[in-house]
Amino acid sequence: MTQPLLILITGLPASGKTTLAKHIAAEFHFPLITKDGIKELLFDQLGWKDRAWSRQLSSVTYALLFHFIELQLSAGQPVIAESNFARTDEFLALKRRYAFEIFQIKCFADGLTLFQRFKERAEAGIRHPGHVDQQTYEELKPLLLRGKDEPLNIGGTYYEIDTTDFLAIDYKKLFAAIRATSYFTIPGT
Questions:
Q1: What pLDDT sits at residue 187?
Q2: Which GO terms describe its molecular function (predicted)?
Q3: Least enclosed by CB within 10 Å: which of 67, 69, 127, 187?
Q4: 189 within domain boundaries
Q5: pLDDT tens digits for 121-144?
Q6: Domain span including residue 116
Q7: How many domains does the chain have?
């Protein structure tokens, strides 16, 4: 039996992770679990107020995110997870419990572009107000100006995608790379 495929979409804030994840989910018809999707449900149910509360909900959000990932993997099902993942502990723990293949996609962009995107979407009210993005400009500016963070050291296939210009993204190439994983190339899938 083929091992399930975990597609991780990660990168800095405003790097296009959710946009990319939705394209992949539509192409492959895999379930998509997003950190912000979970967190915004929590904001709607529990309320929102400030950065400290947002951070507190982030820890609960990650616990739920990994719970949902584990449910899919334990059932032998593929799953797409999107977040600005920074820690490897949870993935390594999942790897000890289940056999699955990882396809990690790192979204990156020109640093100034990231900062401008972040600021524009905060000011446009595109994101849930519970994220309190307007309160984090100075905190996140040095991080965003880097344009890229480090990949997760969790093994599997690693794929980088420059999202500076969304129109320049080669989705066919990305989809072909995903189809080259053993999930698609081993008979019986």
A1: 67
A2: ATP binding
A3: 187
A4: no
A5: 888 878 777 777 677 778 889 999
A6: 5-184
A7: 1
Asked which of 89-93, 117-121, 151-155 is least confident by mean pLDDT, the reply is 117-121
- Spatial neighbors of 81 by CB under 8 A, at least 6 apart, are 6, 7, 8, 9, 32, 33, 34, 65, 69
Find the CATH number of the domain harbouring 21. Answer: 3.40.50.300
The two tokens of residue 23 are 């394209």
Determine, yes or no, domain membership for 104.
Answer: yes
Give residue 44's identity as a one-letter amino acid code: D
